[in-house]
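pinging the channel bc i need a second pair of eyes. not urgent but kinda urgent?? the chain im working w is below, pasted from the shared doc
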Amino acid sequence: MARPARKLKLTREDRVTLKRWARSRTIDNATATRARIILAAHEGQLASEIAAVLGVSDRNVYKWIWRFDEEGLDGLKERPRSGRPRKLDLDDVMEILTKTVEEDPPGATHWSQRLMAQAMNVTKQQVAQIWSSAGLKPHRVKTFKISRDPRFAEKVVDVVGLYMSPPANALVLSVDEKTQIQALDRTQPMLPLRPGQVERRTHDYKRNGTTSLYAAFDIATGKVIGKLAKRHRAQEFLEFLDLLDRRTRSAAAVHVILDNSSTHKTAEVQAWVEAHPRFHFHFTPTSASWLNAVESWFSTLERRAVRRGVFTSVTDLEDAIRRYIKAHNSNYAKPFVWTKSAETILAAVKRASEVAGL
């Protein structure tokens, strides 16, 4: 037996508004249908009759009667629903880009996709697409320092020239030292890698001493000459130079690229260079360690042989470094290729200086 729809009590203002919506040609059809449901229920019609006349389900009739009874006219309006997000216009995109580069979110140092989506009432996917198209990565930060070396341009041209057009019948060695390499041991045994389980280790560690590595990276072959030392002084650097002299006697000239460490410029070191005229020192600009090719090799050494290692003593650490140098020279070494010209570097530094106001 058909159930009658609940007879609703309407105010005069409600009836006027509902009749206007029901007859309107500009309002959306869904809202007009809901207005007709409420008017019909107010007249005492059965839910099945209302549904048959308006082409909706009985459940739909009861739904809108309940909504109106609870919320009045506002209950007949469409509520926000999940689904396809609204399409952004150019103004929306420009506002998101402007906020990203010119403003900070409240109480935070940088925007995340979630924070920007909340601030702009869009989806995280839309924020991600806009940032990707513009090449913006607010979650990332890099360090920099613009060299104030008065001979910056001269040194860049000199070092890059050695990389891109090395002298004939000569060796070009990128030299530096990696100091204070720590021999770290874990407080408990590591749990090994297994299918479905990553390698695990304790977060805390034991320090078992440090060592320093002097290294010379051969630009032509990518091979490395290394020497480990307990300390980092001019004396150890001189011993390393003696090693380079012995290992490179077949070369007519040796061009050494190195940084401005005080241990590289002592009177003893200068005297050594004068006594070995086939050695020529080329200093990188101050605050420009990125120009020294061996730094990239140090980074690889750290990732592959040191960072995840477990060393019960400095001897263990030094043995691991020696093994890596041997494996690198036998299996991984390849000629070093520098791609950016001195002109490109100088232009980029000039732009960065202008942005930084230096």
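so Residues 314-332 form the longest helix (19 residues). and The chain has three domains: 12-76, 90-134, 152-193+201-353. — does that match what u expected or am i reading it wrong
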